[in-house]
Amino acid sequence: MKYRLVSIDIDGTLLNDQRKIAPRTASAIARAVDMGMAVCLATGRRWNSTVDYVRQLKLQTPTICFHGGVVVDSITGQALHSEMLDMTLARSIIAAWIDFGVPVFVYRHSLEMPDVIHQNHDSDHPRVRDFLDHEGGNVAVVDDLLASLDWQPMRLMTYGYPRHVEACYQQFANLYTEEVQVYLTPHQDTAYLEVLPAGASKAQGLDWLSRHLGVSPGQAIAFGDNLNDLDMLRWAGLGVAMGNAGRHVKEAADIVTADNDSDGIAMVLEEVLGVED
User: pTM of the full predicted structure?
Assistant: First the structure.
């Protein structure tokens, strides 16, 4: 079999627009695993918000979280490989964001909760309020984040109204040095700004995992839909863009499949790997 490793992004790729894994997609993944394929999820999410999908698909191959910032043992949840932000630089960015007035979230990989710390902020953005309500005790809300931060972070994140978040990004562009990866992801009502270590990318996480498994890039298939998937699609022997992906993602891919609402992953697995529905 030419391909031995399959890497799948979650949001907009594995999940359909109802945020579910379609039965045909789940079945194709299960059959690929039964055939001896190593199937992993590669996501910007942290482990705590990824583990349910790993368990649902019964995956045992390590999981790539935080855009490649950590590779997690899918059985134990322990980090096998991780990248951390420089503490001095992280504190500078946190302080700048707080002064600018955006909500600030700081993440780590931990099996102990909370794994996120948040500067108390009177945000009126519904996404911020929904996240805090949903996560509950998984997020420590503090009045002085810099004084309370006693662990080295893996990711800094803010999100809110696009104009405000994009202005924050531009205001502190000088802080985003070669030591960090910066992802600014605008949507219609919400923009997300993330800062991660320079070594945190899906391609680098997938490269570490492939060496761990003894798999070459030419033996890997990667599925994605967003800009943070670009390097992973280029790295893999077969980079697959979803039909709902943007133009730049499609141009970077080797092939374009159907969208996330039309079993695009299953179509490729069934054809390329001979996994028939």
Answer: 0.94
